[in-house]
Amino acid sequence: MSNKGKISKNKSKINNKITDSTNVDTENNIISKREGIHERENGMSQKSKDKIVNKYMSNKNKHRKEGPNIYYDDQFYTYEDDDQECNHDKKNESDNLQSQQLKQAEQIQKTGMLTSTNGNHMIHCLTIVGQVEGHYTLPSQTKTTKYEYVIPQLIAIEETPEIKGLIIILNTVGGDVEAGLAISELIAGMSKPTVSLVLGGGHSIGVPLAVSAKVSFIVPSATMTIHPVRMNGVVIGAQQSFSYFDKMQARIIDFICRNSKIKRGRFKQLLMNTGEMVNDIGTMLDGKMAVQEGIIDELGSLNHALKALYRLIDKN
Predict the structure, then answer these.
(1) CA distance 63 to 245
(2) Are residues 157 and 295 in the same domain?
(3) Cα→Cα distances 122→135, 166, 249, 300, 304, Å
(4) Considering 124, 203, 227, 260, which one is annotated as catalytic?
(5) CA distance 131 to 175
(6) Could you list the residue range(s) of the whole structural domain that residue 63 is in?
(7) Active-site residue among 184, 204, 216, 260?
(8) What is the pLDDT of residue 198?
(9) What's the confidence (pLDDT) of residue 190?
(10) DSSP per-residue string spanning 159-181
(11) What are phi and psi of 146, to 5 degrees?
(12) What is the mean pLDDT of the chain?
């Protein structure tokens, strides 16, 4: 055999040995990692371990290509492990966000309510729209807020520690007096921060609902109608019927005056005004007038209402 052939054969053997040695070393590293055996760590002081870590971290790009093993806080890592863990965390965050958005969409579709977790604190949004439905079921073509759904929801919000505050969005023409007053009393009696925002309209029994929150807002374009209690159907023309109306009206006036800045005498003037509406007694107020009369606390929109709610939560 020629010298060239011997040299080539020897080179091939040496390369095979190097490859085998590399494979064995890689397998040993994998076995050590799986079993938690850190052979290189034995007999090494913490100072020496820190030097190894600093050495690899200072030459990060170079060692990333070579895939070195490093020791940190008595754990065995490689840079490839860090990349995989980072990608895994990002995927989990994306999946969690998607799942949360689907749950919120389902909650809005079923109940018209939403528990938001994207802000500074977890808050619940309660919408009161259309007509407040009470003891009688309204026609199917009428937009309604059912008090038998709202009342349990308010109790659940009060009893859920994770929910820190409640925002009530109002766009209602009014409705059942006793149902609306019952919801208003529950909101006013909550220990958690509450903020209301009147959009479009807060008419009739919508006024107690608006003032029931600890802080109330109204947009400039919204309106509020204040009028005496009315009853549909057959009414017996007797003194007792009018006495009943008067007592019911007194309950509503008391609640509004307790939870707002308007005086009782002034509210009665607005209530019994005969020069404002053609076919009814009462007064219609826009957003600015409602604030000036002291019924609503502030003029503002969603951004102002949320900021006020977060301030109350932080203070609480």
Answers:
(1) 85
(2) yes
(3) 33, 9, 37, 22, 17
(4) 227
(5) 5
(6) 3-83
(7) 204
(8) 97
(9) 96
(10) H-TT--EEEEEEEEEEE-HHHHH
(11) -90, 120
(12) 78
- The domain total for the chain is 2
Residues 269-298 have pLDDT tens digits of: 999 999 888 788 999 999 999 999 999 999
Q: Indicate if the alpha-carbon torsion angle 251, 207, 213, 264 is positive or negative.
A: negative
Q: Are residues 78 and 209 in the same domain?
A: no
Residues 150 and 275 occupy one common structural domain: yes
Task: Match 């008595």 to its residue by tokens.
Answer: 74
* Separation CA 184–CA 210 (nearest Å): 8
Provide the pLDDT for residue 108: 47
Q: Let me know if 191 is a catalytic residue.
A: no
The per-residue pLDDT for 44 is 59
| Structure tokens belonging to residue 266 | 């002034």
Question: Is 314 in contact with 307 (CB distance < 8 Å)?
Answer: no
Residues 102-127 pLDDT 10s: 565 555 445 556 777 777 889 999 99
Catalytic (active site) residue 227:
yes
pTM exceeding the 0.70 threshold for the entire prediction: no
